Amino acid sequence: MNKKNKLLTIGQFAAMHGINKKTLMWYDEIGLFKPSSINPENGYRCYSYHQSPILETILLLRELDVSIREIQDFMKNRSADSLKCLLEEKIADLDLQIAHLQAVRTTLCAHHQNMATLLTMDLSEISIIERKERCLVTVDISRDISFEEEVELITAETEKYRLGRLHHASYGSMIPVSSLQNGSFDDYSRLFIEIPFLTYKTGLHITPGGKYLRAFHRGDWSRMPKRYQEIFDYAKKHGLTLHEFSYEKGINENVIDRIEDYIVQIEIPVLG
User: How far are the Cα atoms of 72, 194, 247 from residue 124, in angstroms, in the given order?
Assistant: First the structure.
């Protein structure tokens, strides 16, 4: 006799699938998954090895948060087509969850990097770093636009890309290098939103990959022009050509209470 045709006790069958036997008893009571047979002498439930694939399918669906009602409906009309459709739906849900977790992880890594930078950086230092190409969502602004309008524009973009929470992305402002060179230090033209794993779409701003000049500024914005002058002096001394935009981003908002302690990271692409 083939060993696979032998019946298993409820305890043996539950142990084989890594579940509690009470789960099998409950599945039986609600008509979701019944034993192969019931011992007429003692009323004990017995299960066949060949029932394993069906139980594993149920357990997989439960792991995917499929409701008992959905699984019951599926079991009543079990077929390759119905399982295919159900799994396609759950795979799509799972992909969204994975993307969300990846975005959260990227955000955590960015915060971790910011904290590591805060603990080790020299605010007076100006350095050259390498940056990969990035896709940014941008919002056009001008000197005439109010703070409330800026908030509305940012909120509209976060809703468009279904961010859900503000911390799922990082935010900053952009000012043309040409404006800085002309002494227009408040000529901010765009706000940017950096969303993890954002792929290219028409209308997105692409930051060039390659070398960037990086510097930091702490405190009062009235002293920002002086910091930019130091940046331009550094670039001139080292024969560097700055172009496109300066990307400014706060890196310590979540660990300060006073605006005087606010630190802005400045990154500007270096041509060539």
Answer: 66, 26, 18
